[in-house]
Amino acid sequence: MRTAERLPNGLTLYQDDRFFKLGQDSVLLSAFARIPRRARVLDLGCGTGALALLCWRDDLTVTGLELQPGPAALFHESIAANGLQNVTVCEGDLRDIRAHIPHGSMDYVVCNPPYFAVGTGKDAAGAARAAARQDGEAGLDDVARAIAWALPTGGRCALVFRPERLCPLLDALRARRLTPKRMRFVHQSAVKPPSAVLVACRKDGADGLTVEPPLLVRDESGALTAEYRAIYGFPETMEKVEKNTFSEV
């Protein structure tokens, strides 16, 4: 079923149940990323364009690279519906990024890579959704290689990933000269282990990692925290946020 979701920044995102849908991780990553003014931004493995649209500003030039034609077509529809002149979609495989993105042509890369090894995770069935959640199409080294190709020296990137696979992620990034500079863990509550980790890197950056205070989704009473609500633009009801944007991982 097709739906149209209103994003926190006011843009409209078209989605389809056949494809991986907007989750809280993309929303939190867009808030975590520090994209400079007039930057050229690449959303690597953009799917239907949720993360790219969440990061959108009128001073940016945004490109989405997506392997699957279905999600890419929906992203095209969202771009047209919002009347965006500074967003484009490129259909292609990130493993063949040299054929699609010029070397060092981006200032900032955002990526919500597949979390799970192939055949694992909740969406092991369903090819289109599984491709977005499992690394059968592109592994961590493929993602890191693509980011490193797109960025010049000093360029930056931000990713969201599963905490239990943080070590392989950091290994892959460091192997491609992407130095972790900021990290923040996301907790559904203060008494629960982290459900996601946000990582920002600089290409050929000096050592020096800042671990920021945890981002809490809910407070001691079970209500959404003020910071979380602010990221979502103070939604009208908690129920709407929970139903439409909480990722199931």
Write up this protein:
The chain has helices spanning 24-32, 50-55, 69-82, 127-133, 140-150, 166-175, 226-231, 238-245; strands spanning 2-6, 12-16, 40-44, 61-66, 87-91, 108-111, 156-161, 178-187, 194-203, 210-211, 215-216. It has one domain (2-245): 3-Layer(aba) Sandwich (Rossmann fold), CATH 3.40.50.150. It is globular. The protein has 249 residues and is an alpha/beta fold. Mean pLDDT is 88; it is low at 123-136 and 236-249. Strands 3, 4, 5, 6, 7, 8, 9, 10 and 11 form a nine-stranded mixed beta sheet that branches. Strands 1-2 form a two-stranded antiparallel ribbon.
Give the CATH superfamily: Vaccinia Virus protein VP39
CATH architecture label name: 3-Layer(aba) Sandwich
Radius of gyration: 17 Å
Number of helices: 8
Tally of distinct domains: 1
The H-and-E topology, N to C, reads as EEHEHEHEEHHEHEEEEHH
Main pleated sheet: 9 strands, mixed
The N- and C-terminal alpha carbons lie at a distance of: 21 Å
Helix vs. strand class: alpha/beta
Q: Please state roughly what percent of the residues sit in beta strands, choosing from under 5%, 5-15%, 15-25%, 25-35%, 35-45% or over 45%.
A: 15-25%
Mean pLDDT: 88
**Residues in helices, as a percent range:** 25-40%
Which fold does the CATH topology refer to?
Rossmann fold
Number of strands: 11
Mass-distribution shape: globular
Low-pLDDT windows of residues: 123-136, 236-249
CATH class value: Alpha Beta
